[in-house]
Amino acid sequence: MATSSHRYRVLARSGLPLDTVKLARYLIGKIVVRETPQGLLSGRIVETEAYPVGDAAGHAFRGETARTQTLFLSRGHAYVYLAYGTSYMLNVSSEAVGVGAGVLIRALEPLEGIETMQRNRHVKNLRDLARGPGRLAAALDIDRRLEGIDLCRKGSLWLARDLSGAPKVAASTRIGLSKEAHRILRFYIPGNRFVSGAKMLNR
DNA sequence: AGTGCGATTGACT
DNA sequence: GTCAATCGCACTA
User: Fold this and answer.
1) Which residues have CB under 8 Å from A141's CB, separation 6+?
2) Measured CA to C1', what is the nucleotide nearest A102?
3) In A8-98, which residue ranges form alpha helices assigned H by DSSP?
4) Nucleotide showing the shortest C1' distance to residue A101 CA
């Protein structure tokens, strides 16, 4: 399977809801496309989390800093950071220019480039390739090189329309937080086997 | 300059 | 189920 990005249509920025929570829901079912020298990798988004304006758990909460400046770009830009010194997290900026907020992409259903993802992850099992934010970044070879990239423009990393219809979307509390742990800001496809987190939360 | 702490993962009891 | 690894960042002084 060589380059088949022609099957994908890039998401238009004007089509992205100008609201972090709505965008988190909107991105469920959309496609992440990663183009590398090794070939094209892609996956369907099955789980996201919103980190809206005013959220004490969000990295933009304390204002714009060197790390978080890309969260303040117009919606549809990549914010990539290293969590726990071990795992990169892929986020999508989600508000107007100068307003800091984002959506964390937490899990993908692998579509194309599965053999490359298996090499990147040193794991065979399809279910484990991109189930979890750190895992999906490793599978797609995403790190700080991609910080600030425009995800609404074809390139090394971008977002595409889903080919099938709108999936069912369920909501729950976010995973792994101490602050703002009660808020219902996680979205996922119920019953999907590529969703991370506790089973009870995924029904 | 030093400190505490994660939007996680994988290895292990 | 528990827990250490690992490091960039925000905050204190």
Assistant:
1) A34, A36, A41, A120
2) B7
3) 20-26
4) B7
Q: Give this prediction's pTM.
A: 0.95
- Give dist(CA A60, CA A58) in Å, integer: 5
Separation in Å, CA A5 to CA A41, A50, A58, A97, A145? 9, 28, 33, 29, 21
Per-residue pLDDT tens digits for A72-110: 999 999 999 999 999 999 999 999 999 999 999 999 999
- Helix (H) / strand (E) element for A173: namely strand A170-173
Confidence of residue A129 (pLDDT cuts 50, 70, 90): very high
- Encode pLDDT of A9-58 as tens digits: 999 999 999 999 999 999 999 999 999 998 999 999 999 999 999 999 99
Footprint of strand C on the protein (CB under 7 A): A 59, 62, 65-68, 81-82, 84-86
Q: Which nucleotide is nearest to A86 (CA to C1')?
A: C6
**Tokens 């726990």, residue located:** A84
Q: What is the nearest nucleotide to A55, using C1' and CA?
A: B7
Strand B CB shell (< 7 Å): A 49, 51, 57-60, 79, 83-87, 89, 91, 102, 104, 121, 123, 128, 132-136, 138, 174-179, 196
